[in-house]
Amino acid sequence: MMELEMDKLVSLCKRRGFIFPSSEVYGGINGFWDYGPMGVELKRNIKDAWWRDNVQMRDDMVGLDCSIIMNPKVWEASGHVGGFSDPMVDCRATKERYRADQMYVFAYLFPATNAKGEPTEAWLAGLGGSPGEAAEAVEKRAAKLAKKFGKPADPPVVTPYLEVAADDRIKVIGPSTDEAGTLTEPRSFNLMFKTYVGALESESNVAYLRPETAQGIFANFKNVVDTARVKLPFGIAQVGKSFRNEINPRNFTFRSREFEQMEIEFFCRPEEAKDWYKYWRDARFAWYTGLGLKSEKLRLRDHDAEELAFYSTATADIEYSFPFGVSELEGIAHRGDYDLTQHMKFSGKDLSYFDEEKKERFTPHVIEPSAGADRATLAFLCEAYTEDEVGGEIRTVLKFHPRIAPVKAAVFPLVKRDGMPEKAEAIYRELKRSYNVAYDEKGAVGRRYRRQDEAGTPFCITIDSQTNADDTVTFRDRDSCRQWRVPAAGAVQALRDLLDGKPVPSAE
Ligand code: GAP
Fold first, then answer.
1. CA 506 to centroid of ligand 1, rounded, Å
2. Whole-prediction pTM value?
3. Where in 349-440 does DSSP place strands (E)?
4. Angle of helix 373-384 relative to helix 6-15, nearest 10 degrees?
5. What is residue 226's predicted lDDT score, i.e. its pLDDT?
6. Residue 328, ligand 1, Cβ within 6 A
7. Which of 160, 212, 245, 495 is surrounded by the fewest CB atoms within 10 Å?
8. Which residue, judged by its Cα, is nearest atom 15 of ligand 1?
9. Contacts for 279-283 with beta carbons within 8 Å, 24 or more apart?
10. pLDDT tens digits for 29-64?
Protein backbone atom coordinates (compact mmCIF):
# COMPACT_ATOMS: atom_id res chain seq x y z
CA MET A 1 0.00 0.00 0.00
CA MET A 2 1.18 3.52 -0.85
CA GLU A 3 2.63 5.45 2.10
CA LEU A 4 0.94 8.83 2.33
CA GLU A 5 3.10 11.83 3.06
CA MET A 6 1.31 14.41 5.17
CA ASP A 7 2.72 17.30 3.10
CA LYS A 8 1.02 15.96 -0.01
CA LEU A 9 -2.34 15.74 1.73
CA VAL A 10 -2.02 19.21 3.26
CA SER A 11 -1.20 20.67 -0.14
CA LEU A 12 -4.10 18.86 -1.84
CA CYS A 13 -6.43 20.12 0.89
CA LYS A 14 -5.30 23.67 0.21
CA ARG A 15 -5.33 23.34 -3.59
CA ARG A 16 -8.79 21.81 -3.80
CA GLY A 17 -10.45 23.92 -1.12
CA PHE A 18 -10.78 21.36 1.66
CA ILE A 19 -8.86 22.99 4.52
CA PHE A 20 -7.07 26.35 4.86
CA PRO A 21 -5.10 27.80 7.77
CA SER A 22 -7.42 30.13 9.69
CA SER A 23 -7.06 33.85 8.91
CA GLU A 24 -4.28 33.00 6.47
CA VAL A 25 -4.11 36.48 4.94
CA TYR A 26 -2.83 37.67 8.32
CA GLY A 27 -0.31 34.86 8.67
CA GLY A 28 -2.70 32.36 10.26
CA ILE A 29 -3.13 31.49 13.92
CA ASN A 30 -1.68 28.32 15.39
CA GLY A 31 -4.22 25.60 16.12
CA PHE A 32 -7.13 27.00 14.11
CA TRP A 33 -8.33 25.85 10.69
CA ASP A 34 -10.99 26.79 8.16
CA TYR A 35 -12.92 24.36 5.99
CA GLY A 36 -13.21 25.50 2.37
CA PRO A 37 -16.02 24.76 -0.10
CA MET A 38 -15.06 21.07 -0.46
CA GLY A 39 -14.07 20.57 3.18
CA VAL A 40 -17.30 21.95 4.58
CA GLU A 41 -19.29 19.47 2.47
CA LEU A 42 -17.08 16.57 3.52
CA LYS A 43 -17.21 17.38 7.23
CA ARG A 44 -20.95 18.10 7.07
CA ASN A 45 -21.55 14.72 5.38
CA ILE A 46 -19.57 12.99 8.14
CA LYS A 47 -21.53 14.77 10.88
CA ASP A 48 -24.82 14.09 9.07
CA ALA A 49 -23.95 10.38 8.69
CA TRP A 50 -23.10 10.25 12.40
CA TRP A 51 -26.38 11.97 13.36
CA ARG A 52 -28.46 9.85 11.00
CA ASP A 53 -26.94 6.54 12.13
CA ASN A 54 -26.66 7.28 15.85
CA VAL A 55 -29.72 9.42 16.50
CA GLN A 56 -32.41 9.35 13.81
CA MET A 57 -32.11 5.66 12.90
CA ARG A 58 -32.42 4.57 16.52
CA ASP A 59 -35.37 4.35 18.90
CA ASP A 60 -33.26 4.84 22.02
CA MET A 61 -31.48 8.14 21.27
CA VAL A 62 -32.44 11.81 21.34
CA GLY A 63 -30.43 14.86 20.32
CA LEU A 64 -29.43 18.06 22.07
CA ASP A 65 -27.78 21.33 21.10
CA CYS A 66 -26.71 23.30 24.13
CA SER A 67 -24.84 26.56 24.59
CA ILE A 68 -21.07 26.71 24.37
CA ILE A 69 -20.76 28.96 27.42
CA MET A 70 -22.38 27.45 30.49
CA ASN A 71 -22.56 28.25 34.16
CA PRO A 72 -18.92 27.94 35.38
CA LYS A 73 -20.06 25.59 38.17
CA VAL A 74 -20.47 22.94 35.44
CA TRP A 75 -16.68 22.91 35.05
CA GLU A 76 -16.11 22.71 38.79
CA ALA A 77 -18.35 19.66 38.91
CA SER A 78 -16.62 18.06 35.93
CA GLY A 79 -13.18 18.68 37.40
CA HIS A 80 -12.03 20.93 34.56
CA VAL A 81 -11.55 23.89 36.91
CA GLY A 82 -9.57 23.54 40.08
CA GLY A 83 -6.86 21.15 38.96
CA PHE A 84 -3.33 22.25 38.13
CA SER A 85 -3.30 25.13 35.76
CA ASP A 86 0.35 25.20 34.70
CA PRO A 87 1.76 23.16 31.88
CA MET A 88 3.72 20.26 33.35
CA VAL A 89 6.16 17.79 31.84
CA ASP A 90 6.58 14.23 33.07
CA CYS A 91 9.76 12.21 32.64
CA ARG A 92 8.85 8.64 31.74
CA ALA A 93 12.25 7.36 32.90
CA THR A 94 12.49 8.99 36.31
CA LYS A 95 8.78 9.69 36.97
CA GLU A 96 9.77 13.25 37.92
CA ARG A 97 7.34 16.05 37.05
CA TYR A 98 8.55 19.53 36.08
CA ARG A 99 6.83 22.83 35.48
CA ALA A 100 7.42 23.34 31.78
CA ASP A 101 7.67 27.11 32.01
CA GLN A 102 10.50 26.81 34.55
CA MET A 103 12.58 24.44 32.46
CA TYR A 104 15.14 25.48 29.96
CA VAL A 105 17.14 23.57 27.41
CA PHE A 106 20.79 23.73 26.50
CA ALA A 107 20.40 23.08 22.81
CA TYR A 108 23.74 21.73 21.61
CA LEU A 109 23.90 22.52 17.96
CA PHE A 110 25.47 19.64 16.12
CA PRO A 111 26.44 20.40 12.55
CA ALA A 112 24.42 17.60 10.90
CA THR A 113 21.75 18.58 8.38
CA ASN A 114 19.60 16.53 6.07
CA ALA A 115 19.42 16.76 2.26
CA LYS A 116 17.06 19.73 2.46
CA GLY A 117 19.50 21.58 4.72
CA GLU A 118 17.20 21.18 7.73
CA PRO A 119 18.62 20.36 11.16
CA THR A 120 18.42 16.67 11.95
CA GLU A 121 17.45 15.10 15.25
CA ALA A 122 21.02 14.80 16.42
CA TRP A 123 21.74 18.39 15.54
CA LEU A 124 19.05 19.55 17.87
CA ALA A 125 19.56 17.16 20.74
CA GLY A 126 19.45 19.19 23.89
CA LEU A 127 19.76 18.87 27.61
CA GLY A 128 16.84 19.79 29.74
CA GLY A 129 17.86 21.80 32.76
CA SER A 130 15.80 22.52 35.80
CA PRO A 131 16.12 25.64 37.98
CA GLY A 132 18.10 23.99 40.75
CA GLU A 133 20.61 22.20 38.53
CA ALA A 134 24.24 23.28 38.79
CA ALA A 135 25.94 24.38 35.60
CA GLU A 136 28.69 21.74 36.08
CA ALA A 137 26.13 18.96 36.21
CA VAL A 138 24.72 20.09 32.87
CA GLU A 139 28.28 20.35 31.45
CA LYS A 140 28.99 16.80 32.54
CA ARG A 141 25.92 15.49 30.80
CA ALA A 142 26.81 17.58 27.76
CA ALA A 143 30.12 15.74 27.53
CA LYS A 144 28.27 12.42 27.45
CA LEU A 145 26.04 13.72 24.71
CA ALA A 146 29.08 14.79 22.68
CA LYS A 147 30.31 11.17 22.75
CA LYS A 148 27.07 10.11 21.16
CA PHE A 149 26.68 12.77 18.49
CA GLY A 150 30.16 14.22 17.97
CA LYS A 151 31.49 17.55 19.08
CA PRO A 152 28.82 20.18 19.34
CA ALA A 153 29.07 23.76 18.23
CA ASP A 154 30.01 25.95 21.13
CA PRO A 155 28.51 27.56 23.16
CA PRO A 156 25.09 25.91 23.55
CA VAL A 157 21.95 27.90 22.83
CA VAL A 158 19.86 28.23 25.96
CA THR A 159 16.13 28.21 25.19
CA PRO A 160 12.95 28.01 27.27
CA TYR A 161 11.70 24.43 27.22
CA LEU A 162 8.23 25.37 25.98
CA GLU A 163 9.75 26.77 22.79
CA VAL A 164 11.60 23.61 21.83
CA ALA A 165 8.82 21.33 23.05
CA ALA A 166 6.67 22.56 20.18
CA ASP A 167 9.21 21.24 17.67
CA ASP A 168 8.73 17.54 16.90
CA ARG A 169 12.34 17.15 15.76
CA ILE A 170 13.91 17.98 19.09
CA LYS A 171 14.51 15.15 21.50
CA VAL A 172 15.26 16.84 24.78
CA ILE A 173 17.13 14.84 27.38
CA GLY A 174 15.43 15.27 30.74
CA PRO A 175 17.18 16.80 33.77
CA SER A 176 17.82 13.51 35.59
CA THR A 177 18.42 11.02 32.81
CA ASP A 178 20.77 10.33 29.90
CA GLU A 179 18.10 8.97 27.63
CA ALA A 180 16.55 11.18 24.95
CA GLY A 181 12.82 11.41 24.35
CA THR A 182 11.62 10.44 27.83
CA LEU A 183 9.83 13.72 28.48
CA THR A 184 6.11 13.85 27.74
CA GLU A 185 4.61 16.80 25.95
CA PRO A 186 3.84 19.69 28.24
CA ARG A 187 0.35 19.08 29.53
CA SER A 188 -1.88 21.59 31.11
CA PHE A 189 -4.55 20.53 33.50
CA ASN A 190 -6.68 23.49 32.67
CA LEU A 191 -6.92 23.94 28.94
CA MET A 192 -10.08 26.00 28.98
CA PHE A 193 -10.36 29.33 27.20
CA LYS A 194 -11.47 31.91 29.70
CA THR A 195 -13.75 34.84 28.97
CA TYR A 196 -15.99 37.30 30.82
CA VAL A 197 -19.76 37.43 30.59
CA GLY A 198 -21.19 40.95 30.69
CA ALA A 199 -19.55 44.35 30.85
CA LEU A 200 -17.27 43.80 33.84
CA GLU A 201 -14.02 41.89 33.54
CA SER A 202 -14.12 40.71 37.15
CA GLU A 203 -13.51 37.28 38.69
CA SER A 204 -17.23 36.90 39.39
CA ASN A 205 -17.95 37.21 35.64
CA VAL A 206 -15.47 34.57 34.47
CA ALA A 207 -16.85 31.95 32.11
CA TYR A 208 -15.28 29.32 29.87
CA LEU A 209 -15.68 28.10 26.32
CA ARG A 210 -16.65 24.46 26.74
CA PRO A 211 -13.77 21.99 26.34
CA GLU A 212 -16.21 19.13 25.58
CA THR A 213 -19.87 18.85 24.62
CA ALA A 214 -20.46 16.04 27.14
CA GLN A 215 -21.11 18.19 30.20
CA GLY A 216 -24.01 19.98 28.50
CA ILE A 217 -25.65 16.58 28.13
CA PHE A 218 -25.26 15.75 31.82
CA ALA A 219 -26.51 19.19 32.83
CA ASN A 220 -29.65 18.59 30.73
CA PHE A 221 -30.25 15.01 31.85
CA LYS A 222 -33.25 15.93 33.99
CA ASN A 223 -34.76 18.20 31.32
CA VAL A 224 -34.62 15.39 28.79
CA VAL A 225 -36.03 12.76 31.17
CA ASP A 226 -38.87 15.10 32.15
CA THR A 227 -39.80 16.13 28.61
CA ALA A 228 -38.82 13.50 26.07
CA ARG A 229 -40.68 10.47 27.48
CA VAL A 230 -37.46 8.46 27.40
CA LYS A 231 -36.96 5.26 29.35
CA LEU A 232 -33.69 3.59 30.27
CA PRO A 233 -31.65 2.53 28.43
CA PHE A 234 -31.39 5.64 26.25
CA GLY A 235 -28.78 8.04 24.96
CA ILE A 236 -28.44 11.77 24.42
CA ALA A 237 -26.29 12.89 21.50
CA GLN A 238 -24.73 16.22 20.68
CA VAL A 239 -22.54 17.57 17.89
CA GLY A 240 -20.81 20.88 18.37
CA LYS A 241 -17.73 23.01 18.78
CA SER A 242 -15.34 22.52 21.67
CA PHE A 243 -12.31 24.60 22.57
CA ARG A 244 -9.06 23.66 24.27
CA ASN A 245 -6.08 25.92 24.60
CA GLU A 246 -3.76 23.07 23.59
CA ILE A 247 -0.15 23.80 24.47
CA ASN A 248 1.12 22.11 21.39
CA PRO A 249 -1.41 22.07 18.54
CA ARG A 250 -0.04 20.04 15.64
CA ASN A 251 -0.37 17.46 12.92
CA PHE A 252 -2.64 19.55 10.72
CA THR A 253 -6.18 19.51 12.16
CA PHE A 254 -5.47 16.54 14.44
CA ARG A 255 -4.84 18.62 17.53
CA SER A 256 -6.54 21.98 17.16
CA ARG A 257 -7.63 24.59 19.65
CA GLU A 258 -11.12 24.80 18.19
CA PHE A 259 -12.69 21.57 16.98
CA GLU A 260 -15.98 19.73 16.75
CA GLN A 261 -17.05 16.77 18.80
CA MET A 262 -19.74 14.17 18.19
CA GLU A 263 -20.60 12.78 21.61
CA ILE A 264 -23.11 10.33 23.05
CA GLU A 265 -23.90 9.81 26.70
CA PHE A 266 -25.75 6.51 26.90
CA PHE A 267 -27.59 6.01 30.21
CA CYS A 268 -28.45 2.54 31.46
CA ARG A 269 -29.06 0.44 34.56
CA PRO A 270 -25.78 -0.26 36.44
CA GLU A 271 -26.03 -4.03 35.95
CA GLU A 272 -26.43 -3.58 32.17
CA ALA A 273 -23.54 -1.15 31.75
CA LYS A 274 -20.92 -3.79 30.94
CA ASP A 275 -22.97 -5.15 28.04
CA TRP A 276 -23.76 -1.68 26.72
CA TYR A 277 -20.07 -0.77 26.89
CA LYS A 278 -19.24 -3.76 24.73
CA TYR A 279 -22.08 -2.93 22.37
CA TRP A 280 -20.92 0.68 21.81
CA ARG A 281 -17.27 -0.27 21.54
CA ASP A 282 -18.08 -2.59 18.64
CA ALA A 283 -20.83 -0.44 17.08
CA ARG A 284 -18.63 2.64 16.89
CA PHE A 285 -15.78 0.69 15.29
CA ALA A 286 -18.20 -0.72 12.71
CA TRP A 287 -19.43 2.82 11.91
CA TYR A 288 -15.99 3.84 10.63
CA THR A 289 -15.46 0.67 8.61
CA GLY A 290 -18.94 1.06 7.09
CA LEU A 291 -17.94 4.48 5.79
CA GLY A 292 -14.75 3.27 4.20
CA LEU A 293 -12.05 3.18 6.91
CA LYS A 294 -11.51 -0.41 5.97
CA SER A 295 -7.78 -0.76 5.98
CA GLU A 296 -5.67 -2.29 8.69
CA LYS A 297 -4.86 1.30 9.68
CA LEU A 298 -7.99 1.40 11.86
CA ARG A 299 -7.82 -0.42 15.19
CA LEU A 300 -9.53 -0.74 18.53
CA ARG A 301 -7.31 -0.56 21.61
CA ASP A 302 -8.51 -1.38 25.11
CA HIS A 303 -6.92 0.74 27.83
CA ASP A 304 -4.75 -0.98 30.44
CA ALA A 305 -5.84 -0.65 34.06
CA GLU A 306 -3.19 2.09 34.66
CA GLU A 307 -4.55 4.21 31.82
CA LEU A 308 -8.12 4.30 33.14
CA ALA A 309 -9.55 7.38 34.82
CA PHE A 310 -10.28 6.57 38.47
CA TYR A 311 -14.05 6.48 37.87
CA SER A 312 -13.91 4.36 34.71
CA THR A 313 -13.98 0.58 34.69
CA ALA A 314 -13.27 0.25 30.98
CA THR A 315 -12.21 2.48 28.11
CA ALA A 316 -11.27 1.72 24.53
CA ASP A 317 -9.83 3.97 21.85
CA ILE A 318 -10.54 3.73 18.17
CA GLU A 319 -7.21 4.60 16.62
CA TYR A 320 -6.03 5.32 13.11
CA SER A 321 -2.54 5.04 11.75
CA PHE A 322 -1.99 8.56 10.39
CA PRO A 323 1.21 9.42 8.50
CA PHE A 324 2.42 11.06 11.75
CA GLY A 325 1.69 8.00 13.89
CA VAL A 326 -1.12 5.94 15.40
CA SER A 327 -3.50 8.31 17.18
CA GLU A 328 -6.96 8.44 18.73
CA LEU A 329 -10.08 9.11 16.68
CA GLU A 330 -12.62 8.33 19.36
CA GLY A 331 -12.78 7.08 22.93
CA ILE A 332 -15.51 4.83 24.32
CA ALA A 333 -15.61 5.03 28.11
CA HIS A 334 -17.58 3.27 30.80
CA ARG A 335 -17.95 6.21 33.21
CA GLY A 336 -20.14 4.59 35.88
CA ASP A 337 -22.33 7.11 37.72
CA TYR A 338 -19.46 9.58 38.19
CA ASP A 339 -20.79 12.50 36.13
CA LEU A 340 -24.39 12.52 37.33
CA THR A 341 -23.22 12.11 40.92
CA GLN A 342 -20.82 15.05 40.57
CA HIS A 343 -23.55 17.27 39.12
CA MET A 344 -25.93 16.29 41.92
CA LYS A 345 -23.23 17.25 44.43
CA PHE A 346 -22.46 20.61 42.86
CA SER A 347 -25.98 21.66 41.80
CA GLY A 348 -27.85 20.27 44.78
CA LYS A 349 -30.47 18.90 42.33
CA ASP A 350 -31.69 15.33 42.22
CA LEU A 351 -30.56 13.74 38.96
CA SER A 352 -31.50 10.20 39.85
CA TYR A 353 -33.88 8.14 37.73
CA PHE A 354 -37.10 6.43 38.78
CA ASP A 355 -37.81 3.12 37.10
CA GLU A 356 -41.63 2.97 36.92
CA GLU A 357 -41.77 -0.75 36.25
CA LYS A 358 -39.41 -1.84 39.02
CA LYS A 359 -40.42 0.99 41.34
CA GLU A 360 -36.76 1.73 41.96
CA ARG A 361 -34.79 4.98 42.16
CA PHE A 362 -31.08 4.99 41.26
CA THR A 363 -28.35 6.92 39.47
CA PRO A 364 -27.91 5.56 35.94
CA HIS A 365 -24.52 4.47 34.66
CA VAL A 366 -23.08 6.01 31.54
CA ILE A 367 -21.29 4.75 28.45
CA GLU A 368 -19.68 7.60 26.51
CA PRO A 369 -18.65 7.21 22.86
CA SER A 370 -16.83 10.50 22.20
CA ALA A 371 -15.64 11.24 18.67
CA GLY A 372 -14.00 14.21 16.95
CA ALA A 373 -15.50 15.41 13.66
CA ASP A 374 -12.20 16.97 12.56
CA ARG A 375 -10.16 13.89 13.38
CA ALA A 376 -12.70 11.69 11.56
CA THR A 377 -12.50 14.04 8.56
CA LEU A 378 -8.70 13.85 8.60
CA ALA A 379 -8.75 10.04 8.82
CA PHE A 380 -11.22 9.78 5.91
CA LEU A 381 -8.99 12.13 3.88
CA CYS A 382 -5.87 10.06 4.65
CA GLU A 383 -7.64 6.80 3.83
CA ALA A 384 -9.09 8.20 0.59
CA TYR A 385 -5.83 9.69 -0.73
CA THR A 386 -4.56 7.49 -3.55
CA GLU A 387 -2.11 7.87 -6.39
CA ASP A 388 -2.49 5.48 -9.30
CA GLU A 389 -1.61 5.30 -12.97
CA VAL A 390 -4.25 6.01 -15.57
CA GLY A 391 -3.37 6.17 -19.29
CA GLY A 392 0.34 6.32 -18.48
CA GLU A 393 -0.09 9.27 -16.12
CA ILE A 394 -0.05 9.42 -12.34
CA ARG A 395 -3.37 10.66 -11.06
CA THR A 396 -4.28 11.76 -7.54
CA VAL A 397 -7.67 10.54 -6.45
CA LEU A 398 -9.64 10.78 -3.22
CA LYS A 399 -11.56 7.52 -2.96
CA PHE A 400 -14.26 8.67 -0.53
CA HIS A 401 -17.24 6.48 0.28
CA PRO A 402 -20.07 8.01 -1.84
CA ARG A 403 -21.99 8.87 1.34
CA ILE A 404 -19.33 11.32 2.51
CA ALA A 405 -18.03 12.52 -0.88
CA PRO A 406 -18.46 16.34 -1.06
CA VAL A 407 -19.81 16.20 -4.63
CA LYS A 408 -21.80 13.13 -5.64
CA ALA A 409 -21.55 13.53 -9.43
CA ALA A 410 -20.27 15.95 -12.08
CA VAL A 411 -22.07 16.52 -15.36
CA PHE A 412 -20.11 17.45 -18.50
CA PRO A 413 -21.08 18.31 -22.07
CA LEU A 414 -18.29 16.79 -24.19
CA VAL A 415 -18.13 19.99 -26.29
CA LYS A 416 -19.84 23.36 -26.06
CA ARG A 417 -22.04 22.87 -29.15
CA ASP A 418 -24.54 20.55 -30.86
CA GLY A 419 -27.04 20.98 -28.03
CA MET A 420 -24.77 19.18 -25.53
CA PRO A 421 -24.55 22.01 -22.96
CA GLU A 422 -28.36 22.35 -22.87
CA LYS A 423 -28.84 18.59 -22.34
CA ALA A 424 -26.09 18.49 -19.72
CA GLU A 425 -27.55 21.44 -17.87
CA ALA A 426 -31.01 19.86 -17.81
CA ILE A 427 -29.61 16.68 -16.22
CA TYR A 428 -27.49 18.75 -13.81
CA ARG A 429 -30.54 20.81 -12.70
CA GLU A 430 -32.56 17.67 -12.13
CA LEU A 431 -29.82 15.98 -10.11
CA LYS A 432 -29.24 19.13 -8.08
CA ARG A 433 -32.74 18.82 -6.58
CA SER A 434 -31.53 15.75 -4.67
CA TYR A 435 -27.73 15.90 -4.56
CA ASN A 436 -24.75 18.20 -4.39
CA VAL A 437 -23.54 17.93 -8.01
CA ALA A 438 -21.15 19.92 -10.20
CA TYR A 439 -21.32 21.16 -13.78
CA ASP A 440 -18.13 21.65 -15.79
CA GLU A 441 -17.72 22.47 -19.47
CA LYS A 442 -14.16 23.85 -19.41
CA GLY A 443 -11.15 22.10 -20.96
CA ALA A 444 -10.52 18.62 -22.28
CA VAL A 445 -12.81 15.99 -20.80
CA GLY A 446 -9.81 14.02 -19.47
CA ARG A 447 -8.74 17.02 -17.39
CA ARG A 448 -12.26 17.48 -16.13
CA TYR A 449 -12.24 13.85 -14.96
CA ARG A 450 -8.90 14.43 -13.16
CA ARG A 451 -10.29 17.51 -11.40
CA GLN A 452 -13.24 15.50 -10.10
CA ASP A 453 -10.97 12.59 -9.13
CA GLU A 454 -8.92 14.95 -6.96
CA ALA A 455 -12.08 16.24 -5.29
CA GLY A 456 -13.30 12.67 -4.68
CA THR A 457 -16.44 12.85 -6.86
CA PRO A 458 -17.53 9.22 -7.27
CA PHE A 459 -19.30 9.52 -10.66
CA CYS A 460 -19.16 11.66 -13.79
CA ILE A 461 -21.89 11.87 -16.41
CA THR A 462 -20.91 13.03 -19.91
CA ILE A 463 -23.25 14.12 -22.68
CA ASP A 464 -21.53 13.34 -26.00
CA SER A 465 -22.25 12.92 -29.69
CA GLN A 466 -23.90 9.55 -29.12
CA THR A 467 -26.42 11.27 -26.83
CA ASN A 468 -27.89 12.99 -29.87
CA ALA A 469 -28.15 9.68 -31.70
CA ASP A 470 -29.65 7.39 -29.02
CA ASP A 471 -30.38 9.63 -26.01
CA THR A 472 -27.91 7.85 -23.73
CA VAL A 473 -25.17 9.41 -21.59
CA THR A 474 -21.79 8.11 -20.42
CA PHE A 475 -21.42 7.25 -16.75
CA ARG A 476 -17.84 7.02 -15.44
CA ASP A 477 -16.74 5.45 -12.18
CA ARG A 478 -13.99 7.33 -10.27
CA ASP A 479 -12.16 4.33 -8.81
CA SER A 480 -12.07 1.92 -11.75
CA CYS A 481 -12.37 4.63 -14.48
CA ARG A 482 -14.89 2.24 -16.09
CA GLN A 483 -17.44 3.84 -18.43
CA TRP A 484 -20.89 2.63 -19.50
CA ARG A 485 -23.99 4.07 -21.14
CA VAL A 486 -27.27 4.88 -19.43
CA PRO A 487 -30.50 6.26 -21.02
CA ALA A 488 -30.59 10.02 -20.35
CA ALA A 489 -34.08 9.74 -18.88
CA GLY A 490 -32.83 7.21 -16.31
CA ALA A 491 -29.70 9.15 -15.26
CA VAL A 492 -31.10 10.34 -11.92
CA GLN A 493 -32.31 6.88 -10.91
CA ALA A 494 -29.03 5.32 -12.08
CA LEU A 495 -27.07 7.74 -9.90
CA ARG A 496 -29.40 7.13 -6.95
CA ASP A 497 -28.84 3.36 -7.28
CA LEU A 498 -25.07 3.78 -7.42
CA LEU A 499 -25.03 6.06 -4.39
CA ASP A 500 -27.18 3.49 -2.57
CA GLY A 501 -24.50 0.89 -3.18
CA LYS A 502 -25.49 -0.77 -6.46
CA PRO A 503 -22.27 -2.14 -7.99
CA VAL A 504 -20.70 -0.47 -11.00
CA PRO A 505 -21.47 -2.60 -14.11
CA SER A 506 -18.61 -4.92 -14.94
CA ALA A 507 -16.56 -4.40 -18.10
CA GLU A 508 -18.12 -6.00 -21.19
N1 GAP B 1 -16.09 13.86 26.83
C2 GAP B 1 -14.89 13.10 26.68
C3 GAP B 1 -13.87 13.78 25.89
O4 GAP B 1 -13.98 14.94 25.52
P5 GAP B 1 -11.51 13.41 24.82
O6 GAP B 1 -10.75 12.12 24.58
O7 GAP B 1 -10.80 14.50 25.53
O8 GAP B 1 -12.82 12.96 25.59
C9 GAP B 1 -12.90 13.14 22.64
O10 GAP B 1 -12.04 13.94 23.42
C11 GAP B 1 -12.55 13.28 21.17
O12 GAP B 1 -12.54 14.66 20.79
C13 GAP B 1 -11.15 12.77 20.79
O14 GAP B 1 -11.15 11.38 20.57
C15 GAP B 1 -10.88 13.55 19.53
O16 GAP B 1 -11.49 12.92 18.42
C17 GAP B 1 -11.57 14.88 19.80
N18 GAP B 1 -10.56 15.87 20.28
C19 GAP B 1 -10.14 16.06 21.54
N20 GAP B 1 -9.22 17.05 21.59
C21 GAP B 1 -9.05 17.48 20.32
C22 GAP B 1 -8.25 18.49 19.71
N23 GAP B 1 -7.44 19.27 20.42
N24 GAP B 1 -8.33 18.66 18.36
C25 GAP B 1 -9.16 17.89 17.62
N26 GAP B 1 -9.95 16.93 18.15
C27 GAP B 1 -9.91 16.72 19.47
1. 42
2. 0.85
3. 353-355, 360-362, 365-372, 385-390, 393-398, 409-413, 437-439
4. 100
5. 95
6. yes
7. 160
8. 372
9. 280/332, 280/367, 280/369, 281/316, 281/332, 283/369
10. 999 999 999 999 999 999 999 999 999 999 999 999
